[in-house]
């Protein structure tokens, strides 16, 4: 237990204040509220031989100096079972409540908020999204962000230590699989501020807001999805984050293929991690529709073309191995689609690399600006799989090559 003279100080050192109370009961009520509000812990009252004593000292949360509350005024301050003994240490005639000034009015923390905004002054895209980024976009191609701390009067608070962490929201961007914590999924933070320190492969960034805020940048991953940047204060300010927190990563305006003179091969059963695989840019969707109609007009007695993988709902890397990496090349911007050519279930059947239909498909493609490329893809060991043969069809020329 603390020395008695420590408990009875009427002029405590800064940053502490002295506040008297009219009665012991009032002080006990204050104790309850103070311990709950100042230190976020329930109070403890002990009874021993009709002597009321209280637990009056504890370690507050990290970052706040220790505080104490003294409630006695005629009560005997004693060691009870709360403190592991029963020795009386003295009688205190003051009633005092000591509370750290850093918490504002005694017993109530000052309210601070931390907000992310665009450094260029442009507004956020929505109440939750700061801005949109294409997959794989580098920091120099994206807007800088600034983390700023405000007090309860919405005034900027300078010199606050802050921590930023980037996380990917699971099951977004068309990916319902994999480890959402790796950098290839989350992207990375960076900053040119002299106070900045990076850790966890760029997923965590710390620094100081200085006089105008802490400026940072974000590099989008090759995979698309919703990315959250969580901001906190790491000193005594105890901030609550407000405002938009997310970066929308993806290719804008992709649309799902609808019904036409082709057959869409469903993906959910063979690749549950990518259940929706038929998204294209509007122009590309028009090209494949015209191409399919030309094919059907030229070969009306044949089955309709069967379309397999195009792009995911926001494009980006189409990781067949569920590891945020290729090999499914060029399926990232909604400009490419695979047309089955393995003869399964009525699909176009290319029987050899010299099959005349390969040339005919190319000729049809030139009429609409598409480039059907016959492919026999490799497996994980690099062995070509003839049963998986198809036409990898670039619908907007070389545009399909632009992948992260």
Description:
By secondary structure, this protein is an alpha+beta fold. It folds into three domains: 4-103, no CATH class; 112-249, Sandwich (Immunoglobulin-like), CATH 2.60.40.10; 255-401, Muramoyl-pentapeptide Carboxypeptidase, domain 2 (2-Layer Sandwich), CATH 3.30.1380. The protein has five helices and 26 strands. It has helices at residues 4-7, 24-39, 183-186, 282-298, 356-368, and strands at residues 16-20, 45-48, 51-54, 57-58, 67-71, 76-78, 88-91, 95-100, 112-118, 129-133, 145-150, 161-168, 188-190, 197-199, 204-208, 214-219, 225-233, 239-242, 246-249, 255-256, 262-264, 279-280, 305-307, 336-340, 371-375, 390-394. The strands form eight sheets. Strands 10-19-17-12-15-14 form a six-stranded mixed β-sheet, with no helix packed on it. It has a five-stranded mixed β-sheet with strand order 13-16-11-9-18, with no helix packed on it. α4 (282-298) crosses α5 (356-368). It is elongated. Residues 1-25 and 31-108 have low confidence and may be disordered.
